[in-house]
Automatic annotation (TrEMBL):
Listed name of the protein: Putative N-acetylmannosamine-6-phosphate 2-epimerase
A single GO molecular function term of this UniProt record: N-acylglucosamine-6-phosphate 2-epimerase activity
The protein's Enzyme Commission number: 5.1.3.9
Pathway assigned to this chain's UniProt record: Amino-sugar metabolism; N-acetylneuraminate degradation; D-fructose 6-phosphate from N-acetylneuraminate: step 3/5
UniProt entry tagged with the keyword Ion transport: no
Membership in a protein family: Belongs to the NanE family.
Broad EC category: isomerase
GO cellular component labels: cytosol
Stored Gene3D superfamilies: Aldolase class I (3.20.20.70)
One GO BP annotation of this record: N-acetylneuraminate catabolic process
Alphabetic keyword roster: Carbohydrate metabolism, Isomerase
Length: 238
């Protein structure tokens, strides 16, 4: 899929992030493929997926374009979203349409620069590149480095953005006004209203993950709110 076709396909649409960590009940490519299939039935235009096996399984059952990433921890580096050329090559081989990678200013493993990683992708594939950032300056730097899309994925997840209000709608709006590179709204978007607001503020598309595909977290949110109310009612009767 070429860049123009992909951007047209996702414009004003929902991308569903189908990911589960090894310690979560729905971890496994079979589960994630089913989750992605359900997302497609609901109208998702694209899937964001983590890991080679999940990408292959999801691509097979949905035929939707895939934003692929590999989460990998390296010693002495906080960067974990597609951190090196090793993960990039695995994503290329897995058939990802778009490669998402950390585009923050944090130190990378192997001292590889963002520009090096982008160059590697351009030389070795036809994949588009999504730069995951946490600040306005990182977003602009990612554009200058040559990414095809900028995603606000990491706002509140880097040490220097933990105080950001989430979802980071101001960052989405600021970037959308500052560049013609498509801005993808991602990160702690919990409701349809928040997703719609991100589009109003200039996002090209919206990624939602936890609120759709991590039921154990959504269940806990309901339980926590119910418990707060129950505790308050009990206290008022004392």
């Amino acid at each position: 899929m070429n860049k123009k076709n992909f951007l047209e396909r996702i414009k004003g649409q929902l991308i569903v992030s189908c990911q589960a960590l090894p310690n979560e009940p729905l971890h496994g490519s079979d589960y994630m493929a089913k989750m992605a299939q359900a997302a497609k039935v609901g109208g998702a235009a694209c899937i964001r997926a983590n890991g080679v096996e999940d990408i292959k399984a999801i691509k097979q059952v949905t035929q939707l374009p895939i934003v692929g990433l590999i989460k990998q921890d390296y010693k002495n580096s906080p960067v974990y979203i597609t951190p090196t050329k090793t993960e990039i090559q695995l994503l290329i081989d897995a058939g990802a349409d778009v490669i998402a990678l950390d585009a923050t200013t944090q130190d990378r493993p192997n001292h590889e620069s963002l520009e090096e990683l982008i160059r590697y992708i351009r030389i070795n594939s036809q994949c588009l590149i999504m730069g995951d950032i946490s600040t306005f300056d990182e977003g602009i730097a990612a554009v200058e480095a040559g990414v095809d899309l900028v995603s606000t994925t990491l706002s509140s997840y880097t040490p220097y953005t933990k105080d950001r209000v989430i979802p980071d709608l101001p960052l989405i709006e600021e970037l959308a006004k500052a560049t013609t590179t498509p801005i993808i709204a991602e990160g702690n978007i919990k409701t349809p209203a928040e997703a719609a607001r991100a589009i109003e503020l200039g996002a090209h598309a919206v990624v939602v993950g936890t609120a759709i595909t991590r039921p154990q977290i959504v269940t806990k949110q309901f339980c926590d709110e119910i418990k707060k109310t129950t505790d308050r009612l009990l206290q008022s009767k004392q």
